[in-house]
Fold:
Amino acid sequence: MNNVTLPDASGYFGAYGGRFVPEALMPALMELEEAYNTYSIDPSFALELEACLRDYAGRPTPLYFAPSLSESLPALQVYLKREDLNHTGAHKINNALGQCLLARRMGKKRVIAETGAGQHGVATSTVAALLGLQCQVYMGEEDMRRQAVNVLRMRVLGAEVIPVKTGTKTLKEAVNEAIRDWVSSVNDTHYVIGSVVGPHPYPMMVRDFQSVIGREAREQFLALRGCLPGYLVASVGGGSNAIGLFHPFLGDPVKMVGVEAGGYGLTTSMHAATLSLGRPGILHGTFSYLLQDKDGQVLTAHSISAGLDYPGVGPEHSYLKDAHRVEYRAITDTRALAAFHKLARLEGIIPALESAHALAFLEDLALVCPPGTSVIACLSGRGDKDMDLVSGHDQVLEG
Ligand SMILES: Cc1ncc(COP(=O)(O)O)c(C=O)c1O
Structure:
């Protein structure tokens, strides 16, 4: 089986993936898989999703040639896939629309979600309001502090935001709580997972919903340049914007780089570089690379950006790393902040701090590429949500 047609029927990408969950969730996952298999080939579902993506979310998003950024990186011609221009400000809406439309077809009245940066929570709350579904979002208290604007947005949209106070009070604990809720509410509730993580069929289903990014980018680049790009670059938290961009190009001679959060640096314990420094293990129902100590205890992840602050990663990325099809690199908090400011000043675009990791990596790429190399970088979201965080850091830097 090649890497374009994975996962296999049991939900494995090579050794990775699967379904490691409590017995109580097995029927729900099987029901979801069956529904997804039915509706993903149903033309009326495809038309409904396409119309929502176009008329509600604002797709297709532009593929923007960034002239000043390219001039600052003389080897590169940089194109930005503008997921920040989607309704709600990030790629997360693509998946929220897909899953909530599916939940409605399955007769579910309530959706739950977990969120780190808040973008997935906002996207799910938005679509729940659109479709008249009840919505509760689990969010770590630390992330609620870092992303206060998004907490307010979810509440305005009618969702209940449930603070998670355990552990590091970030995304990992929010996922634990959402899974706990789902175990006792599977009859009327769909759990909208926000990235290509979790048990089968989530990594496949979320990838398929996010692949609209790469399908559009491929078509747009071919129309603009009459050839394929040299590189694709995207940030990797759980891995959904990256796999969404990469997947439609996997059969092409295009190089791909996923950029993880290097936090304070890979020689410290303060990072979220799961693929760079982790080992395979089980977290949140799937077998994949994860940050763990020598006894297999899951380690705490750190990133300046709440959306990359997760000790696990989607199983398809683990497979693509081992297959040497995609390279994974890490960028520190400091470099991501510098790239955030650089894009704002050069192009008048304020990127999400998550996306800024991918942008910072372009500096490294420019050092090794021949002149004229074309790159598509995924601008996964906009930076409004990060303004408080960035101004806090700027004060620290100035002080
Ligand atoms: C704007 C943005 N980019 C990237 C990410 C990382 O998630 P993923 O790796 O699933 O794309 C997030 C997660 O919240 C996000 O909000």
